[in-house]
Amino acid sequence: MLAKPSEIQLKNFAVLQSHYKFTPLKKLHKNIYELIDGYQIDIDFAHQAKKKGEIQVFTKISVNNTEAPLPGYSLFIEGSGIFLINEVDRIERSVKDNLKYYSTVSIMIGYLRNSLSNMTASAPLGPYILPPIDLKDLFRKKNEQAKSFKK
């Protein structure tokens, strides 16, 4: 079946910085996936309006990047994407807001997920694949953080 292009377009994507560190495992783990599932994942993002309806989105992802990381990978990646919403005047506000916020962050996480996988492709534990992220929860936490900054 033919796919209909979305009203949102990714005009540019760039990885701004990335860091990778491997901490050797002191003992062999029977299940590496259990170890990796224990990694803390921290994601942050910001939207900035640009010219003529363009939106720039900055996204940071830290994986097991704590003061006392678990063995294996400690990863950090930061990227920026520039998006354009086509026919912005014809789209309902709720649809436009969904595209502007949720879709842009989802797309950025997807591109950064791929970059993390590529960064660790030749690493000792094999490629790290960022698990699916609950965007609704991520946005709820972002809103709570914004409210606490206003106080």
From TrEMBL:
GO terms for molecular function: unfolded protein binding. One of its GO terms (biological process) is protein transport. It comes from the Bacteria. Keywords: Protein transport, Translocation, Transport. Gene3D superfamilies: SecB-like. Belongs to the SecB family. This is Preprotein translocase subunit SecB. It comes from Thermophagus xiamenensis.
